[in-house]
Amino acid sequence: MNQSVMKALKLLNFFSADTPELTLKEIAAKADIPKPTAYRLLAALEESDFLYKTKENEHDSRYRLGLKLLELGHIVSDQLEVRTIALPYMQQLAQEINEVVHLVIVNQDEATYIEKVDSSRALRLNTRVGKSSPLYAGSGPKMLLANLPPEQQHEILTADTFYRNNQLVDKHELIDQLEKIRENRYAYSVGEQDADTTGISYPVYDYRNEVIAALAVSGLSSHFEGENLEWIKTKSKQTAKTISGQLGYKGSDF
């Protein structure tokens, strides 16, 4: 990481509940850096809304933590809440269908797996908690991509090429898939992250009726056929709906 970025972020650690406000002189002393250097770093944090200046005069300036941190804190809080609420329902679903169950969220321009419940089958998938993947690879990521705000989705789709599992993806085909996901309210994938596997995903909504996560079920493609496929879809959809209800969702998009 850039050294200036690390130095700037380190300054945020000096603020606490006991010391919510600090002067430029105090921050420079705590960081053991010259006041001009501290001022430059603080100015960058202020410009990004991580800090705001409460007072400035010719001798010193005073700073408090900015609203950007509150915004980011809410995002982290929401992520922790959906993970905590979803886990027991994911465990129940995995036990009923005996397939791997994931919870996936958008993390900047990628999809990140924040929870996973394994099946009892001897199956190894290329997924783990904390793993990130492109938003166009796999049923869970595609569910999230399909429900992004149009401008954010457009930004991701402006890339010249897309690869998943070392295979080139046709952009027009991907756009068609995203449209079908929005229409059908579930996502389907075959071999997009692991060979011979199939994934089914349903949206998880919050109290604002926004998609904040994808409940993704994955397993060998031979298990996702006929009546068993319909059973998996039914149980996964019910579970996603239940989790959404626990998060305050009042809509009827299932």
Determine the mean pLDDT.
89
Number of strands: 11
Rough outline: elongated
Query: How much helicity do the residues have?
Result: 40-55%
What is the CA-atom radius of gyration, in angstroms? 23 Å
One letter per element, helices H and strands E, the order comes to HEHHEEHEEEHHEEHEEEH
Report the biggest beta sheet as strand number plus sense, adding barrel if it closes.
6 strands, antiparallel
Q: Indicate the proportion of strand residues.
A: 15-25%
N-end to C-end Cα span: 43 Å
What do these coordinates show?
The protein has a six-stranded antiparallel sheet with strand order 6-5-4-11-10-9, with helices on both faces. The chain is an alpha+beta fold and 254 residues long. The model has no long low-confidence stretch (mean pLDDT 89). The chain has eight helices and eleven strands. α2 (24-31) packs across α3 (35-47) and α5 packs across α7 (171-184).
How would you sum up this structure in a few lines?
44% of the residues lie in helices and 24% in strands.
List keywords for this structure.
3-stranded antiparallel beta sheet, 6-stranded antiparallel beta sheet, 11 strands, alpha+beta, 254 residues
Strand-helix topology:
Layout: H1 3-12, E1 21-23, H2 24-31, H3 35-47, E2 51-56, E3 61-65, H4 67-97, E4 100-107, E5 110-117, E6 132-134, H5 139-146, H6 150-157, E7 162-164, E8 167-169, H7 171-184, E9 187-190, E10 197-205, E11 211-220, H8 226-246
Antiparallel strand pairs: 1-3, 2-3, 4-5, 4-11, 5-6, 7-8, 9-10, 10-11
Helix pairs in contact: 1-3, 2-3, 4-8, 5-7
